[in-house]
């Protein structure tokens, strides 16, 4: 991912910022919605991410490394999660993402 993405659209739309984006070169993901590190092992469910986001709404940036997982709350209140698959250079973070319904 370079720049950002609005995750509320199917397919997601590129954006300068958005529901998920990078800014600068600090291995940090940002969100105009909410972004919270997933503390458990395995893949979170929609209900688990919704609960985590509900209790951590103010978080909008997260330092990441390969394998990091996070729950995402989009601008239009969809629930999603991302996993960092690679960080090829200082200006790019590759992720896989799942977006569910609204919370």
Layout of helices and strands:
Layout: E1 4-6, E2 13-15, E3 20-22, E4 28-30, E5 34-37, H1 46-54, E6 61-63, E7 69-73, E8 78-89, E9 92-102
Antiparallel strand pairs: 1-2, 1-3, 3-4, 4-6, 5-7, 7-8, 8-9
Q: What report would you give on this structure?
A:
With 103 residues, the protein is mainly β. Helices cover 9% and strands 46% of the residues. It has one helix at 46-54, and strands at residues 4-6, 13-15, 20-22, 28-30, 34-37, 61-63, 69-73, 78-89, 92-102. The longest helix is centred in the middle third of the chain and has 9 residues, at 46-54. 31% of the residues are buried.
Please sum up the structure shown.
The chain is mainly beta. It has one helix at residues 46-54; strands at 4-6, 13-15, 20-22, 28-30, 34-37, 61-63, 69-73, 78-89, 92-102.
Shape: globular
First-last Cα distance: 25 Å
Overall structural class, as computed from helix and strand content, comes to: mainly beta
- Low-pLDDT regions: none
Compute the number of strand runs: 9
Task: Give the helices and strands as they follow along the chain.
Answer: EEEEEHEEEE
Content of β-strand:
over 45%
Number of helical stretches of at least 4 residues? 1
Question: Main attributes?
Answer:
103 residues; mainly beta; 5-stranded antiparallel sheet; 4-stranded antiparallel sheet; 1 helix; 9 strands; globular
């Amino acid at each position: 991912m370079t720049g950002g993405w609005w995750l509320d659209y199917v397919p997601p739309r590129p954006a300068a910022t958005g529901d998920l984006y990078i800014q600068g070169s600090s291995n940090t993901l940002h969100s105009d919605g909410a972004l919270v590190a997933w503390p458990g092992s395995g893949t979170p469910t929609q209900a688990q991410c919704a609960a985590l986001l509900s209790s951590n709404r103010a978080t909008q940036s997260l330092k990441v490394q390969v394998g990091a997982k996070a729950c995402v709350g989009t601008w239009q209140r969809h629930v999603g999660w991302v996993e960092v698959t690679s960080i090829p250079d200082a200006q790019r973070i590759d992720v896989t993402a799942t977006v569910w319904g609204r919370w």
